[in-house]
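Narrative of accomplishments. A recurring question from our advisory board has been how the design workflow behaves on a single, concrete structure rather than in aggregate. To address it, we present the structure tokens for one chain from the evaluation set, followed by the sequence designed for it. No filtering or post-editing was applied between the two.
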């Protein structure tokens, strides 16, 4: 296989930090710092996404694969750099953050999928490491790798992952921040996306009054990643850019709500300017439908980033971005228009997805009430979101009974407690579907394409991690393969489609995760 075609527009076209030392520091007037990955002891491939390898045009069987994607070896055209960015963390401006452990390797021009930037997460210290070690543990690397691939196949915009390479080095982490630090196996994920620019990339120069750098960054982003906007007249570009970022973010939030994904740390440094899901940390999937749930123990008190609050946080984060971009606007009206477009796009997309999950092909007045009522019933009964929606397609419309939904209940008490409300809703739903006058096959196809059978339940990821930590990668491989077809029934894989078992309910890694990774 030929070498990758590196183009590296980001480092060619934007200003570099002239200081090439590793020491932690404030980096002014630059979009990035040059930095090479720090070598690791004994790279060993844990998993590769064959699809991402094919997209990039890299042979996963090449003998130097582990060395390259552990940061021990380079191939022609690769350069190492860490991006400068800031961010609002949990609602507070946190100043400069930057890639403290992610190191960019450059941008590849692919045959069919445009520009793709490669980045090693956990590749060692950078000027943005702020006293931390620049490394990542195997457990969080497996979580990032599997979830980004799973999200892609669910149809949710996301960064992707090429590989996980175990480093052979130990990394010390205090998992629950309770004074019990312990060594864990280290690993590096190679992440892949058209760009890793974040809201925080623009907020940092704006916070310093560096409008020249801000403008350079925005112009670069539009030129490189939004060609349709680059073709507009100069006076319209920035408004169109903010509008586009807003509507992409709105669609992303609607997607997360559709599949039951809770990001867990929606700080503005974790918001992609391309509207991708980025930075998989203490994320989770809601098993029982609970809009107040967050997997992130660090956020347990305020639950700022809880499941049902994500759309509001998307708006909050866009406001922060609008504030950062405001020096480029003479008049704030286009920024307000972008924020309004966020609300409209989210509401329309969320409503459309809600209807699609119910198999309603022709939108009608009253559908929003039907969807809202169902959410109330799901909350009251704590049903498993994924199983409930998937099995709803089994309902007999002529005799709508909750029996077919039995697998979605976690306790008998909940099943009995909600049965009256559920039966009433099912009757209304069945009536509504009959009035839709759509072909049954079409309705079922829509439901099956909107309601996955397989999602990366937190406990499933943890089981694969436990095996991998013992040197057995079969759990990771099985999940990767299964989650490539989340909407298909896969005979023999029922054990990956069931409810969360009781033992996993309050277990670290299965329902509770800290930012320690
Ligand atoms: P996150 O919570 O993963 O979004 O990270 C927030 C900030 O902390 C980013 O600037 C990261 O690069 C940095 N960071 C997180 N973990 C580490 C680490 N182990 N070493 C260096 N920097 C880190
Ligand atoms: Mg981050």
């Amino acid at each position: 296989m030929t070498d990758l075609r590196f183009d590296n527009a980001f480092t060619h076209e934007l200003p570099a930090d002239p200081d090439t030392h590793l020491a932690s520091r404030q980096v002014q007037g630059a979009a990035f710092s040059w930095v090479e990955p720090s070598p690791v002891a004994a790279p060993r491939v844990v998993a590769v996404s064959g699809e991402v390898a094919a997209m990039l045009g890299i042979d996963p069987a090449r003998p130097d694969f582990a060395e390259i994607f552990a940061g021990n070896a380079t191939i022609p055209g690769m350069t190492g750099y860490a991006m400068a960015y800031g961010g609002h963390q949990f609602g507070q401006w946190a100043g400069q953050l930057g890639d403290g452990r992610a190191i960019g390797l450059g941008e590849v021009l692919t045959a069919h999928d445009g520009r793709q930037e490669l980045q090693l997460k956990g590749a060692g210290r950078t000027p943005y490491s702020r006293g931390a070690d620049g490394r990542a543990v195997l457990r969080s690397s497996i979580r990032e790798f599997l979830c980004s691939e799973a999200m892609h196949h669910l149809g949710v915009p996301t960064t992707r992952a090429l590989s996980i390479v175990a480093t052979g080095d130990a990394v010390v982490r205090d998992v629950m921040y309770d004074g019990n630090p312990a060594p864990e196996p280290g690993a590096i994920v190679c992440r892949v996306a058209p760009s890793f620019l974040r809201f925080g990339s623009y907020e940092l120069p704006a916070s310093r009054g560096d409008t020249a750098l801000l403008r350079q960054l925005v112009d670069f982003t539009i030129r490189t990643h939004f060609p349709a906007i680059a073709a507009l007249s100069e006076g319209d570009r920035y408004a169109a850019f903010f509008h586009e970022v807003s509507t992409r973010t709105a669609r992303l939030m609607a997607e997360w709500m559709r599949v039951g994904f809770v990001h867990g740390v929606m700080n503005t440094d974790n918001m992609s300017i391309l509207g991708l899901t980025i930075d998989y940390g203490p994320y989770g999937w809601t098993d029982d439908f609970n809009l107040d749930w967050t997997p992130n123990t660090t956020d347990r008190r305020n639950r700022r980033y809880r499941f049902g609050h994500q759309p509001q946080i998307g708006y909050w984060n866009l406001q922060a971005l609008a504030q950062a971009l405001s020096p480029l606007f003479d008049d704030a009206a286009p920024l307000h228009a972008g924020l309004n477009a966020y609300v409209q796009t989210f509401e329309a997309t969320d409503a459309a997805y809600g209807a699609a999950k119910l198999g309603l092909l022709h939108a009608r007045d009253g559908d929003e009430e039907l969807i809202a009522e169902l959410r109330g019933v799901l909350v009251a009964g704590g049903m498993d979101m994924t199983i409930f929606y998937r099995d709803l397609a089994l309902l007999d419309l002529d005799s709508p009974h909750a029996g077919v939904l039995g697998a979605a209940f976690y306790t008998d008490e909940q099943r009995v407690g909600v049965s009256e409300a559920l039966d009433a809703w099912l009757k209304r739903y069945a009536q509504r579907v009959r009035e839709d006058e759509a072909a049954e096959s079409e309705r079922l196809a829509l439901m099956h394409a909107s309601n996955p059978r397989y999602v990366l339940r937190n406990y499933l990821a943890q089981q694969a991690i436990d095996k991998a930590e013992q040197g057995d990668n079969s759990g990771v491989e099985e999940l990767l393969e299964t989650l490539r077809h989340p909407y298909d029934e896969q005979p023999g894989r029922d054990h990956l489609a069931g409810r969360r078992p009781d033992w996993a309910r309050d277990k670290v890694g299965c329902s509770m995760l800290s930012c320690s990774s």
